[in-house]
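Write out a record, fold above all:
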Amino acid sequence: MERKHKLRGAFYLRLSKDDDNQKESSSISNQRKLLQDYAEKAGFDIVAEFCDDGVSGTTFDRPGFNQLIQAVENGLINLILVKDLSRLGRDYIQTGQYTEVYFPAKNVRFIAVNDEVDSDQPLNDLAPFRNVVNEMVARDTSRKIRSSFQTKMREGAFIGNFAPYGYQKDKHDKNHLVIDPNTAPIVHRIFEMAAFGCSSANIAKSLNEQKISSPAVYRCQKYPHLKLANYTQKKAWSASTIRKILKNPVYRGHTAQGKSVKSSFKNRHVSALPMQEWIIVENTHEAVVEQELFDLANEGAKQRQCVKKDSFVNSFSKIAVCADCHHGMSTIGSMPHVILACGSYKSHGKSICSNHFIDYNDLMQCTREVLKRYALLDEAEKREVFAEIKEELSPSKHENERIDELNHILDTLYLDYYAGTLSAQRFEQLKEHYEAEKSQLDSLRQTADDTVDFEKIYRDIIRFDELSPQLLSAFFESIEISQGSDENHEKQQQIVFHPRFKIKP
């Protein structure tokens, strides 16, 4: 058949991981040699070559193929040669759309050498059937690969292309993870910050301010062939990145895979699976964080939300202190899962102190046991103790003046906020701080008024239903919390009570 225009041909070459069983015969170099011999015998003028090496035929979003189509659109080529139809693609609907509709509309001659398909020949009835067969092969290959991956995942082998942030692939076993000394300390710090009350957003902000490379940036730095602009849009740390790290069991030494599923082998769209459907194999590699810290960080993240100010009152405020640095113990989480942690460690990390912490309810129970001794006081001892309690609970002149001062400060804060001289974030921080102090002093004043009923106090001591901050402060100068230790798989922790009054042994 004579053409009005000179043929300007192009080779299209493609090879993917799906072709491992025929890698030698389908290699890029072999495809090129086959097409060169065919074009030379046919007398075709080849002006271009387009290649996709390592790209599946189930998708048509390929760099080389996209360049091929652009060349067609620009009128640079009007002849395309491929080794066989499967090189063009393995999706029979889209492959047929190109060979039966698009190429003819653009006056482009299409030749699949081994399949003996030539759009200039009248008999191409078998081409659609070959496309269907190619898709069936792709579907079967995809199923076999997925089954193989599932087996490896259940055996605890890591099959991802890249190790999770904080780890690297073992040089001796690509399916085994080892600690990355550059990033594992950062992961550990993330868990510590979460455990000690920092929100995911604030953790991300802190890491960005310290100019620590995000997981995506670090990966591109480690693998220069990955172009950051093409690889991801997320170049900075974000709250969602922090939350994913905190939830990932991989940092406890467990391989966690199968977190998503493809909707179809033909496309790249994936759907996230709930955590209960992940494939998790325990103790496959070294952990970055210990179980206690992992649980504490996740409990804090789960409980870290806005709650009503009056929903929880820390009865141990200004009473419970770290036994090492004597800094006050700060609260983490909300009831019923409140933790008291060393405040200086929470603020400054290991440079100041260690991660002292104790379960709030455990400390409350221990305190109740100590206070039970007051139930043994005789009447004379009770009167003496209660007189001292009343004195301790009564607000001083200084405290009354402080209440008035706090009222003035709060009024000023509101005025500055509405005048625009104070940001909303800073306003909320200061307001929360001063209102908490005022609330505590107001409670102290109210409690002092209630202490005239000695019998009521005594009943409160015996019942131990509610141990208020004021009541505990009246009984104890301080409660020292030491670092816990594990002995015989049981946590051992020393608590030292410093009472204001002598208690019968």
Summary: The CA atoms of residues 57 and 165 lie 31 Å apart. The chain has three domains: 9-141, 167-297, 320-499.
